[in-house]
Specification:
Belongs to the short-chain dehydrogenases/reductases (SDR) family. By secondary structure, the chain is α/β, with parallel strands linked by helices. The protein has nine helices and seven strands. Helix content is about 50%, strand content about 15%. The longest helix is centred in the middle third of the chain and has 29 residues, at about 100-130. It starts with a strand and ends with a helix. It binds NADP nicotinamide-adenine-dinucleotide phosphate.
Length: about 260
């Protein structure tokens, strides 16, 4: 049976770069995001360039009913998935109390709920088939609280801790779990989150993806591309929690228009 890497958030940024890096290594892919036309174009291009099979599925993973439908399709077992990359994610910025609740709900539904349910469904399928690999995308934001982006930082702390916990639980079933913690990366993320960041000098998603596929081959637990990003993840341990909150709050407020 043909095996596939299932990548969410594959229409853009880090998910797209992961799709390209994996296709380059001969992996067949199933791409998931909301923008059907974009997915179709990407699937065609990757097939032509790398000669791999690329399927795609347009799905709003933040809609619990659509997510359930998609998970049922996966459970039907028509496609064997040996790698799950949970890259779909969004951010919000600004004072929590002033946010439209729907924006915070969308973030929680996508960053936490969809990611966790995909791990549950695909993790079970992998355990039955004797193994597989899961990569969840957190962030360097996972390592400290982030005033003015409180829900985003907390969602990424969830992804980091959930992934590390799951890793220990499922290793005997042959399922490997890693978590990627990128620093600021040149993607549409900042525009979507309405953060006013000049992305020109940031790490490219292709650099992040190359580092990540190499680390995945070594089954690294926590993958943080870039020396300064690794330093940043250590810094909350070197200063008091009060100071860590002040520093991340200062940075977030600077880039947040509200
Ligand atoms: N860029 C950074 O600096 C950075 C740093 C650390 C961590 N991260 C994390 O990296 C991950 C990827 O983000 P990115 O930077 O690559 O941003 P991006 O370019 O905006 O990509 C986000 C992806 O998620 C998909 N998506 C958004 N909402 C969705 C939904 N409701 N259902 C299904 N797919 C959805 C988008 O596709 P559609 O619009 O087609 O649905 C897109 O493919 C996120 O989890 C983010 O938190 C990013």
């Amino acid at each position: 049976m043909t095996r596939y890497a299932l990548i969410t958030g594959a229409s853009s940024g880090i998910g797209l770069a992961m799709a390209e890096a994996l296709a380059r290594r001969g992996r067949n892919l199933i791409l998931v995001a909301r923008q059907r036309d974009l997915l179709e174009t990407i699937a065609l291009e990757l097939t032509q360039r790398f000669g791999v099979e690329v399927l795609f599925r347009a799905c709003d993973l933040g809609e619990p009913l659509r997510l359930s439908g998609f998970l049922l399709e996966l459970e039907d077992g028509a496609h064997q998935i040996d790698l799950l990359v949970n890259a779909a994610g969004i951010g919000t910025c600004g004072p929590f109390l002033a946010q439209e609740w729907s924006a915070e709900q969308d973030l929680i539904d996508l960053n936490i709920l969809a990611l966790t349910r995909l791990c549950h469904t695909v993790g079970n399928l992998m355990a039955i088939q004797g193994g597989g690999q899961i990569l969840n995308i957190a962030s360097v934001a996972a390592f400290q609280p982030g005033p003015w982006m409180s829900t985003y930082y907390a969602s990424k702390a969830y992804v980091l801790h959930f992934s590390e916990g799951l890793r220990e639980e499922v290793k005997k079933a042959g399922v490997k779990v890693s978590v990627l913690c990128p620093g600021p990366t040149r993607t549409a993320f900042f525009r979507t989150a309405q953060l006013q960041v000049n992305v020109d000098n940031l790490m490219s998603p292709e650099e992040v993806a190359l580092y990540t596929v190499r680390a995945l081959a070594k089954n690294r637990a926590v993958i943080t591309p870039g020396f300064s990003n690794r330093l940043w993840t250590l810094s909350p341990r070197l200063v008091s929690r009060w100071l860590a909150r002040q520093i991340s709050g200062y940075i977030n407020k600077k880039y947040c228009p509200r």
